[in-house]
């Protein structure tokens, strides 16, 4: 169940490039520019629009907000960039449609590759980090997919648009695929950006007019076709998913408890509906604040099980089952782009005569193959008071708790024609107070799980003694602390509010297990 996102399509006018000059060096080609004064970020965008290039750089190297100017005239792309940067003390490299800007003192590729990380008992890997932002507004793009092209290795950006991805050295020649609903995707060679923190700016995807004109379609029929195409679109044999999981409790923007883990999941075939997925715990850590009374900490009810249950293609919810008992109304509201594929945007909401707490939200369905690409859901706010017992267990004595908003997001990714669950996020907002308190306190429970790797070879169920009991409260698991905790596992970077609180709540770092 996930809050409805409004996608605002912003039009940017791209000027036609005027080319001349040395064909061997693309930065020697000439462009004609007009006189302007603006921030460096805006002027680089202007050069990019004219030349057809995207810029990649670390905002610590290039001051985005510094004022600069361009004089009218015809310049090489390189000279126009130097004019904007007000210095030639930068190294400019081009690959495909990208120009990388680094300090001229940046170590050579050869020097950097000698410092590739290597964790104990693991292969060498390269760490790529950066931020993803909306090009026109410079706002961060949260939950943006960051994957290695042609593989299932990847992660997502956090709520602040930041990411880190550890890439095995054997995949050094691949490209980084950065994508999000409603934006143009980017494919950036890993060799181009290794060792350099990058800022990636995404352009809003402008859907062509002919795609926006809605034909006479039945939105319920589009939803029905998702299940009809399920066996064709989704994995038809068991697989292993290596996933990163996080859950926590936040009160007044202070983190009270944070639990993180790496799981190996035995994922049943999507065509099998009789057996449950299995979870094996690989690594785990928990940080709890000693500064708050335990009676005021809500416990996440089966967040791990909830993450598995939100795989909508394995656990079919009622809003995907179109039959005579269906209680939802469906409306087609938009077309958008996801991973360079056109998608229908279908909204749904329970009918007015239904007064139980049901879901409403949006479904993003591939216009060509009917695969469900994304779902954004929430418990209907009009009836949310009736849903309290579904989400909270182990509240303290004499504590009143009332749900305010329950929202979920689910996304799928494609590899070799088959889709797998990529990211699940749940945000549960409550108000709570003890008997003697005068006012309610806002409290936020959250969990998320991202698939970092998929394996389909030699997949076997886990022995019973290795399976994690997913119905239990996960934060109460026992484990042993490990200094080199994450090693080369891919994780979701903590959000800024979590990072700021970690040092304060680390008074009790509980054990972890491997």
UniProtKB/TrEMBL annotation:
The keyword Membrane applies. InterPro entries: CarboxyPept-like_regulatory, Secretin/TonB_short_N. Residues 53-103 form the Secretin/TonB short N-terminal domain. This is Membrane protein. It holds the Pfam family CarbopepD_reg_2. It comes from the Bacteria. Transmembrane segments: none annotated. Residues 1-20 form the signal peptide. Keywords: Cell outer membrane, Membrane, Signal, Transport. The keyword Transport applies. It comes from Bacteroides sedimenti.
């Amino acid at each position: 169940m996930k809050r409805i996102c409004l996608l605002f399509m912003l039009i940017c006018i791209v000027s036609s490039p005027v080319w001349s000059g040395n064909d061997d060096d693309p930065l020697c080609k000439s462009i004609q520019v007009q006189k302007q004064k603006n921030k460096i970020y805006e002027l680089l965008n202007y050069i990019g629009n004219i030349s057809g290039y995207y810029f990649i750089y670390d905002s610590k190297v290039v001051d985005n907000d510094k004022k600069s100017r361009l004089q009218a005239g015809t310049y090489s792309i390189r000279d126009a960039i130097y004019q904007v940067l007000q210095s030639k003390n930068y190294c400019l490299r081009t690959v495909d449609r990208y120009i990388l800007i680094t300090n001229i003192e940046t170590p050579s590729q050869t020097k950097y590759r000698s410092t590739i990380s290597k964790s104990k008992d693991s292969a060498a890997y390269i760490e790529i980090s950066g931020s993803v932002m909306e090009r026109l507004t410079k706002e961060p793009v949260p939950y943006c997919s960051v994957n290695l092209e042609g593989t299932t290795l990847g992660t997502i950006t956090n709520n602040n648009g930041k990411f880190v991805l550890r890439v095995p050295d054997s995949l050094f020649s691949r490209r980084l695929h950065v994508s999000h609903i409603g934006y143009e995707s980017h494919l950036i060679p890993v060799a181009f950006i290794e060792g350099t923190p990058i800022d990636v700016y995404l352009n809003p995807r402008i859907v062509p007019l002919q795609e926006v004109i809605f034909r006479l379609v039945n939105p319920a029929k589009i939803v029905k076709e998702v299940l009809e195409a399920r066996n064709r679109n989704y994995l038809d044999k068991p697989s292993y998913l290596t996933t990163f999981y996080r859950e926590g409790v936040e009160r007044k923007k202070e983190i009270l408890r944070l639990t993180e883990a790496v799981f190996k999941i035995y994922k049943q075939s999507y065509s099998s509906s009789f057996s449950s997925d299995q979870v094996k715990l690989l690594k785990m850590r928990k940080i709890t604040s000693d500064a708050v009374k335990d009676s005021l900490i809500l416990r996440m009810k089966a967040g791990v099980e909830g993450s598995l249950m939100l795989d909508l293609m394995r656990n079919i919810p009622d809003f995907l089952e179109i039959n005579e008992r269906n209680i939802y109304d469906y409306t087609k509201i938009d077309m958008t782009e996801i991973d360079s594929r056109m998608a229908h945007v279908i909204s749904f909401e329970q009918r007015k005569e239904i007064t139980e707490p049901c879901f409403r939200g949006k479904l993003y369905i591939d216009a060509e193959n009917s695969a469900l690409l994304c779902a954004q859901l929430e418990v209907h706010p009009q009836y949310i008071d009736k849903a309290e017992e579904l989400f909270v267990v182990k509240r303290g004595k004499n504590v009143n708790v009332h749900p305010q908003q329950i929202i979920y997001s689910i996304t799928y990714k494609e590899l070799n024609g088959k889709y797998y669950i990529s990211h699940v996020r749940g945000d549960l907002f409550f108000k709570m107070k003890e008997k003697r308190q005068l006012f309610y306190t806002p409290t936020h429970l959250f969990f998320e799980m991202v698939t970092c790797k998929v394996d389909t070879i030699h997949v076997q169920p886990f022995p019973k003694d290795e399976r994690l009991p997913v119905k239990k409260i996960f934060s109460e698991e026992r484990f042993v602390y490990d200094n080199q905790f994450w090693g080369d596992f891919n994780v979701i970077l903590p959000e800024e509010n979590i990072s700021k609180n970690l040092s304060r709540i680390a008074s009790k770092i509980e054990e972890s297990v491997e």
